[in-house]
Each structure stands twice: as C-alpha cells, then as structure tokens.
Amino acid sequence: MPCRHSPRAFGTRLAVPGFSLSAVVLAMALTACAARPGPETLDPIPSSLKDAKSITILAATDRAPAQVTPPIYGVDRGILSYEAITMLEKAPNGGPYPSVHSPDTDPSGDFVATERRALDETAFARHVARMRKKGGETIVIFVHGYNYSYQEAVFRLAQLSAEAGQTIIPVLFSWPSQASVAGYVADRDSTTFARDDLARLLVMLGRARPGGRIAVVGHSMGAWLVMEALRQLRLEGENDVIAHLQVGLAAPDIDIDVFRKQAAAVGRLSSPLTVLVSADDRALAISSRLAGGRPRLGSMSVDDPRILDIVRSDGMRFIDITTMPASDGFNHDRFIAFAARYSDAARDGGLPDGIRQAGVYLLDTTGRVLSAPFTGAARIVAGSQ
C-alpha cells in the first residue's frame, strides 16, 4: 500500500494540464515509507495489565460506518457519530508500558486498542465531564488534513496525547477524507460537507464545559475546515463558544486571500490564533501549483508583508518551524516535533519563552526563539499595538 505522500502516486495520478507535476515530484529525493494502518488496527485486543498506561481518545466523525462490529469508518459521508477508544502504549519490544515517542515513527506501532465504545451525543458530553474530573485540564480537538484514514487520525492523536501527558482531554474530529493522494478535490468538498458538524461539536463541547479551556488544532486541509467552522459560529452569534477557544493551524492549506477573509469574519480571539508555517513545505508547494500558483498560508515566510499585515490587524501569532525535524519527505508534518517541544514547555508551566504574544517568530531545532532576523518585523508589529 502506498504511503501518505507517495511520489509515484503524485506523479501518475495528479497530472494537471499546463505543467508537469511529475517533474516537480521526481525532483524530490524521497524514500519509501511503511504501509498505512488498516481498519483492523483498531480492533480491540483485551488486556488485563493494570499498570500499563492508557489513553482514551474521544472521537467524533461524519464518516459513514460499515455495518460491522466494531464499526469501520471509511471514506463515505454520513451523519455525526461518536465513540470512545481506549489505547495502551506499547514498548519497543512489544510490551505494554509507557515509552518515549519520536516524530519519525509511525504512531500505529506504538499503541494498541483495548476497547471501543459507541456513544450518543449526550453520553459523549458526559464522558468529557468525567475525564475532566480525573485531571484533564484542556480539551484538545484535533482536525486532521487531506489524505487521512480514520485509524491514522486516531493513532496520530494518541501519539500527541502521549506527549502531552494527563493534562489534556483528546478529542478527534475525523471528516470523510478519501485517504488517497488522488482524492484532493473530493477531500476539499468533504471539508465543506463537514463544516456544520465541526461547528456543532464545538458548541456541544463549549456547553458541556462552560468556562473551560478548549483548544482546536487543524492540520493542512483541516485548518481550512477549522477556520470555516469558526466563521460559521461567529455568523451564528456563538460568541461565548469562540471566546473560550484556543486555535492552532499547522501547515494550513489555505489560500492567503481566503484566509484574510476568514480571519476578518472570525475577528480577534481572546488568545492569539497560532499559525505554524514552513517555507519548504513541499506538499503545500504542490497544492499551490494545483491552485494556479496561489500561495498557501502554511508555506509563506513570516516576514512577508501580507503576514505582517495579518498579525497587525488580527492579533495572530505566526511561528516559522522550518528548522524543526519532519518525519515525511514533504516537510508537511513538522507540527509533531513542535507539539513534542510545546508539551515539554507546558509541563514546565507555559509556552516556550518568547512566543506568548501575537507576533512573528522563528524557532531553532530545540524550540528556542531566534528573533534577530525579525527585528524590523517586530518593530512593525509593535508599532500597531
């Protein structure tokens, strides 16, 4: 089975009149990657080990389930449904004990599902409340990007949750991606299909936890979906819900002009919206080609005048993570390494030093702020506040 961003798949399936996409991709010296996890990887394997570290993922999806038990959520569109998935961490030798994860590893090899329980919306909200009483401080909603299967998204969130420890309540919103390189256009349509459902989830969680902290993180095409859901909530007058949200966009696959319209509709947030960018993101370079050369937000330079204007007018925080490691050859998932670094800082009491305010930032490989190249940019931003 081809990997998520397979050069062969791009070169043969996404040929677009007017330019040779295969030439672009073949120029990338990418190595092969492992097969993607199938739906059977979420089949529960009961365990009687009481001292193994477990993670509960709360999942909401509008993928249509196959009529089997446990359900298989595939690529078709359906109604919003919910479940709780209990995972155990696996040690490198296969034993179930907590382990340290690397962004270079396939997360499906680090976890095993031990229980899956279908929930209705009321039970889902009650489950969130129970997890809060057990020590969860912040609800973190992960919205995956293009070319993701349901199980891949579950394992990715399990990996991120393991890095964060017991301080978060992990919630997955999985929209009906085709999980195929050739499904880019269909995936874009599916994010539009899922917009109402994500907005509904945000409202439900906001009401289930009034006044509590809720963070929503959108990766790639999922970032567009997050912004559209926020725009819809603002237009519907759900200002109380938005007021308690912390929003992060990782490698957002969004046209820069579209983003400016979205940001204007959403308005300033109580906590600066964070955008993680990487100038050498090759997946977004291909997306830009498909869009007629229009720049994508996630691959723009933080000292671009258009970015500085957004920071000035909308009070956002742009962080260049180009120097951080990526596990895919397309440099499209550096947010995983950033999340690991951020989790270390969070356990020590907050964000990494120097990036708590709105502005533009560049990080080195350790997560430290390199501010020297942005002295002029900092003056522009400071002068607007």
Automatic annotation (TrEMBL):
Keyword list, A-Z: Signal
Domain of life: Bacteria
Pfam families: DUF900
Range of residues in the leader sequence: 1-34
Cited InterPro entries: AB_hydrolase_fold, DUF900_hydrolase, UCP033909
Gene3D superfamilies in the record: alpha/beta hydrolase
Listed name of the protein: Alpha/beta fold hydrolase
